[in-house]
């Protein structure tokens, strides 16, 4: 049976993954979840396993949950998708694991959020619990600005915007790190350098450059990945002015073309080799 690569869009990353499977002589099949039809009475779908590369978090979590329940192992697992898709749940996982992370607070009303902000210290970062690429992430410098940001968020119709996740602002040297973790290994890491914005997300103009993989980076990145359940993950680490590292967020379906261009490392082959090793280990355990 083929390994399903589940993705509604074939970006450069998914194309590289499909090419890596072919290059390694492994059967795979692109599966667009929008056309996937699973009749529960039919039993296990005809896939050896599924590599989840769906960009929609809700669709990815739903498809992975269904496939796993019908006997198809998924990478990443549904629980990992659920935790990584929620910044508050990710922070709680870091906190439970005792990782170094920015101080954080969660509130469910504007008044409580305004009370929490000075406890974290201005400036404070206000984030939506869901979303990517730095969208709607704001650095608040005082109570007046905080009130305006929170009132705007409270007026949005999406109830997820009414969960106010606040973070201590880490004074960065204009860059932070994304580490690409597969199991217990950091495949590669990049600096995300801010360009015309305090945010470093490459999707909004941040520039990627190679980052050395130090023992400290490996320890924290792998620990952060394990805290959310493990797998192939993009782990965001913040750096302060003293070069200390902080676990910040984890992406369950990370883009990596910028890392490939910056480092020359074949991230796609690293993903495929990790996934196949996981599949084979699970198959041996079940035999």
What does it look like?
This protein is of the alpha+beta class. The protein folds into three domains: 3-84, Rossmann fold; 103-168, ATP-grasp fold, A domain (Dna Ligase, domain 1, 2-Layer Sandwich), CATH 3.30.1490; 175-273, ATP-grasp fold, B domain (D-amino Acid Aminotransferase, Chain A, domain 1, 2-Layer Sandwich). The chain is built from nine helices and 13 strands. The protein has helices at 12-23, 57-69, 78-84, 87-97, 110-120, 143-155, 215-227, 257-263, 267-286; strands spanning 3-6, 28-31, 49-52, 74-75, 104-107, 124-127, 138-140, 164-168, 175-182, 185-193, 207-210, 232-239, 245-251. The strands form three sheets. It has a five-stranded antiparallel sheet, sandwiched between helices. It has a four-stranded parallel sheet with strand order 2-1-3-4, with helices on both faces. α1 (12-23) links the parallel β1 and β2 (28-31). α2 (57-69) packs antiparallel against α3 (78-84).
Keywords, please?
about 290 residues, alpha+beta, Rossmann fold, D-amino Acid Aminotransferase, Chain A, domain 1, four-stranded parallel β-sheet, 13 strands, metal-binding, Rp_bS6_RimK/Lys_biosynth_LsyX, ligase activity, forming carbon-nitrogen bonds, Azi30
What is the structural class? alpha+beta
Number of domains: 3
How much of the sequence lies in strands comes to 15-25%
Main beta-sheet annotation: 5 strands, antiparallel
The CATH architecture term of the largest domain is: 2-Layer Sandwich
The CATH class label of the largest domain is: Alpha Beta
How many beta-strand runs? Answer: 13
Order of helices and strands: EHEEHEHHEHEEHEEEEHEEHH
Helix proportion: 25-40%
CATH topology assignment of the largest domain: D-amino Acid Aminotransferase, Chain A, domain 1
Global geometry? globular
Domain ATP-grasp: 91-276
Protein name: Azi30
GO molecular function: ATP binding; ligase activity, forming carbon-nitrogen bonds; metal ion binding
Keywords: ATP-binding, Metal-binding, Nucleotide-binding
